[in-house]
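Sharing a chain and its predicted structure for anyone who wants a worked example. Both blocks are below, sequence first, tokens second.
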Amino acid sequence: MEIERFIEELKKINPNLNFDLITRACFFAQENYQGLVRRSGQTYFDHCLEIALDLAKMKLDSSSIATAILHEILERAKTDKERLKKEFGPEITFLVEGVTNVGKIEHQKAVRSIENLRKLFLAMAQDIRVVVIKLVNRLHGLKTLSVFPPEKQKRLALETLEVYAPLAYRLGIGELKGQLEDLAFAYAYPQEYQKLINQVKNKYSQIEAYIQKIIPLVKKVLVREGVKVIEIHARAKHYYSLYKKLQRHDMDWHRIYDLVALRIIVPDVESCYAALGIIHKKWKPVIEAVIYRSS
């Protein structure tokens, strides 16, 4: 990816970023990553830019985005730490070091997942941004997991399900958790994954059509009743989440009521209960499937 195009994409996502810092990081990384290519065939430079874009979409700050661009500098490019500190200061150097150190834990095959989890929490205690960058880095790694031998695929996939996805959940990044789990699921439990995909492919295509139909209808009903709607969005249940729920219900599809989740954002608690009442009046709830949440 060209730097100019990358910067333009960032400006569309968040025009308030420190583009001087990010541009300097891009040119520094481009120089130092020169000739470095991942096993998938993608350059390390492009890999880091893609991670940076995802972090921008998650509303992370300029230092985090610069760190994502530079996060392979110490380990892969063998750039001197003091040079990095001179160019970008102590904060970004600290973050790059944090990501590098977590990466070293990741590559220690003998280390058990629970130990991985402890050390990741230590990193998080120092700066939570280190963990978020690492989570997005793992997501991108899973997308090219097929280039590794089967035993490594399974090890990394299980580690993702046991360590990285729960971390994303604890940090409140539910969509990232779902993406991590779905990508890992295919490698950790390939037979179960394929069986589930075969069962849901027709259901999910119907769900997508239903989502497109139901969102404007729900909004129309709420607005007509005087409820201000900030946002409505919906998605089909993630595959791994669906698989775990089916396991809890003896693989009985008739006990799964939430293949699609609809989230309605309103301005206050009063509007929330008003919206709930209107929706229950319009669409009869399945009582045993209703879960009330206060937040």
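Comments welcome. The first strand starts at residue 231 and ends at 236.
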